From TrEMBL:
Keyword Signal part of the UniProt annotation: yes
Signal peptide: none
Record organism: marine sediment metagenome
Keyword Membrane: yes
Location relative to the cell: Membrane
InterPro entries (alphabetical): Bact_Secretion_Sys_Channel, GspD-like_N0, NolW-like, NolW-like_sf
Name the record gives this protein: NolW-like domain-containing protein
Length: 267
């Protein structure tokens, strides 16, 4: 029903894979344009594991995992101003970094339905993914594709800490080291975050990266919250408010009216 509605609304012809089925609920408090409605439609397909692939005057609705071998639109643009969830093939030439190295770094950030291939002859990345995710990959690549000397690029998935909160702490650590003359400061290091996968992307020299990993291991830990001495009792015969007044007037355990002794102060 949804595909038929979008076809009538946009005038596009769709060829539907027999496996496409399911129920979708879309709620919009405001009216949307035809273009906006089509973008919502593409997003619905993407969330449910499908995509729209143009084939002449017909648009095929197929599973996203099957789209890699189909005739996807090839794009050379650096970035999309209004990205949607249509799967495309993006060509991304690199100036400084090695395509094979960047491809290995991007693969953990791409869903199973996507693909990244390094083409060494022209030092270009071939990325197959949704436009919305490709924008994110382009931003990351642009930050990494810069001149560097003996620098390495590493992807660090975090388990407990949040990447967006940990990155500023690492940069502050680098700045402090720079002030002490032990490093060239944060300009010598790049730290990017991918919030979707909670991952840090670090470009640094091997010695600096080793120091950062020590700090990351110390900060990416599970925080054990202290147990609070709070108990809940359900009363059967008393009024809770009256009982609270009685309990608050009772002396605390070990109270003697004397002030506690202050700890000694070292000088």
């Amino acid at each position: 029903v949804l595909i038929k509605f979008i076809s009538e609304l946009t005038g596009k012809n769709f060829l539907i894979d027999p496996g496409v089925k399911g129920t979708v609920t879309i709620i919009s408090p405001e009216k949307v344009t035809i273009d906006e409605a089509y973008k919502v439609f593409l997003s619905v397909l993407e969330v449910n594991g499908y995509t729209a692939v143009p084939a002449g005057k017909i648009i095929k609705i197929i599973r996203s995992r099957d789209a890699k071998g189909k005739g996807l639109e090839t794009v050379l643009e650096k970035r999309f101003k209004m990205p949607d969830d249509k799967i495309i093939t993006q060509l991304l030439p690199l100036k400084y970094s090695d395509a094979d190295v960047i491809a290995k770094l991007l693969r953990p950030l791409i869903p199973k339905t996507g693909l990244v291939i390094p083409y060494q002859d022209t030092n270009t990345l071939i990325i197959i993914d949704a436009q919305s995710n490709i924008n994110r990959l382009i931003d990351i690549t642009n930050e990494l594709d810069v001149p560097g000397y003996k620098e390495e690029i590493n992807v660090i998935p975090l388990e407990y800490a949040r990447a967006e909160e940990l990155a500023p702490k690492l940069l502050n650590f680098i700045v402090r080291k720079g002030r002490k003359g032990k490093s060239s400061g944060k300009d010598a290091v790049k730290i990017l975050t991918d919030d979707r996968t909670n991952t840090l992307i670090v470009r640094a020299t091997p010695p600096m990266f080793a120091e950062l990993m020590i700090l990351i291991d110390q900060l990416d830990i599970k925080i054990v919250r202290p147990k609070t001495n709070i108990h809940i009792y359900h009363l059967e015969n008393s009024v809770a408010e009256d009982m609270a007044k009685v309990l608050s007037q009772m002396p605390g355990k070990g109270s003697s009216g004397k002030k506690g002794k202050k700890p000694p102060i070292s000088r």
